[in-house]
Amino acid sequence: MATTAVLVPALAAVAPAQPAAATPATVPRDDSAKGGQALTVEGISPQTVGKKSTVKVTGRVTNTTDDELADVTVRLRYSRYPFSDRSQLSSYASGDGAQPQVGGPKTELDKPLKPGESATYSLKVKAEDMRLRDFGVYPLAVDMTDGSGHAEDTRYTYLPYEGESSPDPVDIAWVWPLMDDPQRADDDTFLSDGLSTSLGPNGRLGRLLVAGAQDDDITLEPTTDASAPPADTPGATPDAEATATDTTEEKAEDGDGGEKGDQGDKDADRVPVTWSVDPALLDDIARLGNGTYQVLQQTGKPTATTGDAAPTTLSRDPSPTAQQWLRQARTGLDGAPIITTPYANADIAALLRQDLRADAEAAVSLGGETVENVLGTEADTSVAWPAGGLMNSETRDFLSERGATTFLLSDTALPARSSHGGTPPAQATLAAGDSGADATALVVDSGLRDALAQPSRGAGDAALASQRFAAETAMIAAEGGDDRTVVAAPPRDWNPGADFAANVLRASEKLPWLDPVALGDIEVNAKDEAQRGRLTYPEKGAQSELTGTYLEEVDEVRKDIRLFNTILTDDTDPFRPAILRLESASWRDDKTTAAQARALVARAVTLSREDVHIIPGETVTLASKTGKIGVLVANDLEKETVTVNLSIYSENNERLSVGKYKKEMTLRPGRKTTVYVPLSARINGRTVLNLSLQNADGEPISEEVPLPVNATGLGTQALLISAIGALILVIALAPRALRKWARKRAERVGGSESAESAGAAGDGTGGGPGGDGDNAPGAMQHNGRGSSTEGERPDGSAGSGTATTGDPASDTS
């Protein structure tokens, strides 16, 4: 048997190319290699083998131990007997199946591997030398052994072989998921930064969008550094990307590996894909790119989300990554068939069981509206994909009433009849339920789902995952039968490598036993109906639903929301999406995050209600019997207009009473208003008024605000007593005031007469010309001081000892 084995040393990124015969190049030891994969398979070509093919397996060996490895050998093993049943594929991949016994080509390193060192290998063998039989899937293994023959590592994979002829093609319809767990609690708070990362060119949702669109014009601006590992791909290496490329080139080179013809028009070669989206995810992405938002800080410790402790959040600017993803999604999904889950993939079965039909209806209607608002296109409401692919009769009737005529189900919900061997067709008829009409069931192939869920992002993963997909589909085709269809729907949280996601779509077109079709083109015939049983809702389906206890806790939040909604002027329900996110089927298996999200929503509702509030004032002093106070009411909400009623009551109506005032008021977002309230005080003292806001039904929507009022004014009786006292005082003081006035009048009259006499005497003492002695030259001036008198009498005469004004005897000059 002619075989070829080539060993190529591993090179540092900057090292020049080395001859094939060179010894392994030493690379810096990488501590992360310890305990990792010692053997990787990075390429298997062609993906499906023809009689004239040359099978080529490439990869890398690494010393992941602390000791030097000598006499390392890499070899192929295979079997000349194909698998006889699909179930054997899974057991073989885990190493539990029958081991292939035929030895193939091998190669030995001519130099020991030091700890952390790597070397690449390449093994080739002609298909005709392998002496494989007819069409089928054959076991293939790659071993790495040490000098003693001990297997350091083994990789198990598959070799689909066409043989002389291939069976009739099987139709394959793709459902491509753009889905995730709810990313927000309330509308402005994200549970993590994971979504923003996932939307990038190397993120999960970024890879799914680009691969599913199958359009070179759809790009998320990938990095130009090909050596950089994907952002959310731990341990990825550049070799994983090179693997898929090498495989494709080999297929083109060999020419008989299942090619169906030359590459034609881009649109003609595009594999039909039906996009399945969760409207809540689109809503989350749109919010991510629209305005600042908050992200719950991940500290590695339980986050305080209950009680008075505020959770720690970080502010983020609008995400350009989210904006770019949405632009590309609108282009890539334009005109393509789109189906949706209810908003946030709400657990419809649990909601109906707990008599929450209104929430179930809201999830369906909001889902359709969101897709149209975000993507600008309508979703196909005739296709429903219930949570977990399971539904009971109540869920089926509910979805049918809302337009669903086709249901994507798991093979547990619609199992194959025991008399049927192999894989039955995906399509079947669901007998009429309470809705009164038959429906179509499309069963997702669980084997393909598991194959697609294989690791495909790490070093060497893509090649093995691609072979598993080819093997699964080849086994289905080998079962025989006419006009059969399978539905390939990866898990909703599918996280494939970019190359693997693109390769499985290309393989659907290129593998000779597959024929891609659109999901909407699948039809049911009588033969299909006979191969599957009746609709089944297993016990594990009911047990997996959101529990009644959990939904009761959500209902407590809903009660607070209902109270908040009663003050909104417009008929809106701003927290409805948040409640639907809390009712997502995603929380079936993640109770911790569900509890965290629920607490955050409850807190957001409380804070929103508190944004409509009374602004506390200072203690009021009422200085009279009556008066008015101003009560300031504010609406600090950013979007909602509210209508509230102001309630005021006095703790002591006998002392202080409240008059009539305008109770109802409407406040636009960010506005304030003052309500003037009349008060009446009967008794002086301190009384507390209790102020609160209520809805139209009198239910309080705010905490009471105490407002102390001090009444210091006089009452009627006190005023009467004061008036009588004042009158008595006036009567008592009036005679004395009259006597005092009479004395002052008499003094003024007497003073005038004395002044005239003094003037006459002055004229006879030799005053100079002009007759005024005071103004004569050398005359002595008066000191200007007048005399004061005490003991004035009622007649106005001066008492004894009073000096008169102008007496020369009193002059002190």
UniProtKB/TrEMBL annotation:
Membrane-spanning segments: 718-738
Compositional bias of kind Basic and acidic residues: 257-270
Coiled-coil residue spans: none
Biased composition, class Gly residues, residue ranges: 761-773
Keywords: Membrane, Signal, Transmembrane, Transmembrane helix
Ranges annotated as biased composition (Low complexity): 221-246, 299-313, 751-760, 796-813
Signal peptide span: 1-22
Lineage top rank: taxon: Bacteria
Pfam families, per database record: DUF6049
Disordered as annotated region, ranges: 88-116, 219-272, 297-321, 748-813
Name of the protein in its database record: Secreted protein
